[in-house]
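Let us work through a complete example step by step.
Step 1: write down the sequence.
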Amino acid sequence: MAPRTDPRWPLWRLGLLLYPFATAAVAINLFMLALMGQAVGLPALPPVTALALSVPLGFPATWAAARWVRRLIDEAESR
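Step 2: predict the structure and record it as tokens.
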């Protein structure tokens, strides 16, 4: 089998690398949003619940982050 000539990382590989970070960011943002929501009468969201909700919500955030990183890499390599 011939070696790959395209040195670019595919989006799925970038996504695997970025998933823990994107999911943690989603969890923190959900928790902070719930804290701000208490000012208008919304119930509090425990940190464990925010983390559990962030697991499925981390996929779209990871996809967006991977596309952003891919664009930045492509831009850096073109210079």
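Step 3: interpret the result. The chain has a mean pLDDT of 91.
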